[in-house]
Write a structure and sequence with these properties.
Length: 501
């Protein structure tokens, strides 16, 4: 038995255990069914002359069929490449041109985004993919490949919020150690279950809970897109034990009318990250539902299970991302490469078997990011005197104004303490006098709050040189397809305002 073929192992050990349920189509696959369906698909891929190292791209919403693709690609050494269906047609076709897949699979709702005249590769629909699965006739597959730990299994394109998306290679080795880190931190067993609402084109849609639960022979529920009312109902009805949600999603859930009607007694933890998980959010869920939200940190290039804040510390260490997980090393360095001291800010670097081997077709970016086995994340962080980690923003976002280092997250936290402010986001821009300055985008719950009120509230709480030069009050902060703040759209908005002035 191949030690990395978790689906085959559970198909042998608990064949009738339901591995995945779609709450959109009400399909269910057992571990045995996924195992057999993957063999049918392997035979089809072999017939298409798809070889080890080839890419199979898919443009479709998350669903159970992805697990069949995952299993088949893993056994063949093929790289599964989920494409971001929320991109424009041109952007999607740029990704296809970059990864050069040997096969493109699409859902009916996404078919119109594929420019058939420019893509001369085999293609078929998700519906055709499903016809390959014959549950009553287990496939005979003569494939005798050993799953190699260094083989890439996924190719994830980064969101591109600050530039052109880069393809990150994700290997079987990363898969194994990430799963081990996740299950050790959370005590995952075959009795656990989750509902995945995160997209398939991002590592979080696979490697926060989906693949660790596959490793443990547990149950995975799937929704194509996040709906706060529906998620709350499903968490309650299915007695779900683990859930992953971005802070934005948690806010939507707690504002839902369903929130007061559900108990969620079986939910052990909610994992959150992607942006800062603030104290108010953590304490609200603890007080209202007695549910622990566990902040953590990860990124496409590593893990994504890198740090975790233990549930007993969530209210004692507000805004912390916790401590490093078991099988990795972390250091924080200054610009000269020297490790910083307690409470000193520097770049967070990671080392271990959860690090990507590099970027697809981009050796320059790989050399810039991975040096002597250490991944330089570009994230700024610091330790406190007990070893707890705190993010301080992106290295690219830290700016020097009048010779002083300014960290946007510090300014954001100060603004968000003002009564009537919902959200703040600070970005650096060039300034003729000071070199750089900050611009703040805020949303508010108090309609009478003005820019002048905000500036007055900052006095005495924040050094004058850290005050944003411009403050823009918005109805909503724009988000990426994953639910993170879209800095790209905010810069575009700022540029449009400046050009008109």
């Amino acid at each position: 038995m191949n030690t990395l073929d978790w689906i085959a192992k559970w198909a042998d050990y608990t064949p009738d255990k339901v591995a995945v349920t779609s709450y959109d189509t009400h399909e269910q696959y057992t571990y045995e069914a996924i195992h057999h369906y993957a063999n049918h698909l392997i035979n089809k891929l072999i017939a298409l002359n798809i070889q080890e190292g080839d890419r199979v791209a898919i443009l479709a919403e998350h669903g159970p069929y992805y697990l069949v693709l995952f299993s088949a690609c893993q056994r063949m050494g093929v790289i599964l490449t989920p494409l971001n269906y929320r991109l424009s047609n041109a952007e999607i076709n740029d990704l296809i041109t970059d990864c050069q897949p040997s096969l493109l699979i699409y859902s009916k709702s996404q078919q119109h985004k594929i420019e058939a005249d420019t893509i001369n590769i085999p293609q078929f629909s998700v519906n055709k993919l499903k016809t390959l699965y014959k549950i009553d006739t287990p496939a005979k597959c003569n494939l005798q490949k050993e799953i190699k730990e260094n083989n890439p299994l996924f190719l994830f394109y980064t969101s591109g919020t600050t530039g052109t998306p880069k393809g990150v290679l994700y290997t079987n080795k990363m898969l194994f150690w990430n799963s081990l880190n996740t299950s050790m931190q959370l005590g995952i067993t075959f009795k656990d279950s989750t509902i995945n609402t995160l997209p398939p084109y991002h590592t979080s849609g696979w490697n926060i809970f989906v693949t660790p639960l596959l490793h443990k022979g547990a149950h995975i529920g799937m929704l194509e897109k996040f709906d706060p009312d529906k998620v709350l109902c499903l968490l309650e009805l299915n007695k779900t034990t683990l859930f992953m949600a971005l802070p934005t999603m948690l806010l939507m859930m707690q504002r839902s009318p369903i929130f007061s009607e559900v108990k969620l007694e079986h939910l052990k933890y909610i994992i959150s990250g992607g942006e800062m998980v603030n104290y108010e959010l953590v304490s609200y869920w603890k007080n209202e539902k007695n549910i622990d939200i566990r902040p953590g940190y990860g990124l496409t290039e590593a893990g994504p299970s890198i740090t975790s804040l233990h549930h007993t510390m969530t209210l004692l260490k507000p805004n912390s991302i916790g401590k490093p997980n078991f099988y990795l090393s972390i250091k924080i360095i200054d610009d000269s490469g020297k490790e910083v001291g307690i409470d000193e800010v520097g770049e967070l670097c990671i080392q271990g078997d959860i690090i990507t081997p590099g970027y697809w077709n981009n050796s320059v970016a790989t050399r810039d990011k991975i040096k002597n086995g250490w991944l330089h994340t570009g994230d700024l962080a610091c330790y406190d005197n007990e070893g707890y980690l705190y993010l301080k923003g992106r290295k690219d976002d830290m700016y020097i104004s009048g010779g002083e280092n300014i960290y946007p997250q510090e300014v954001e936290l100060c603004i968000e303490k003002i009564e009537g402010i919902k959200k703040a986001l600070v970005l650096p821009v060039k300034d003729e006098k000071w070199g750089s300055c900050g611009i703040a985008f805020v949303t508010k719950s108090n309609p009478d709050l003005t820019e002048e009120n905000i500036r007055q509230s900052l006095k005495g709480n924040l050094a004058d040189y850290k005050h944003p030069k411009y403050i823009f009050i918005l109805d909503e902060i724009p988000l990426t397809s994953l639910g993170k703040v879209s800095r790209k759209k905010l810069y575009e908005y700022y540029t449009s305002l400046i050009s008109k002035s």
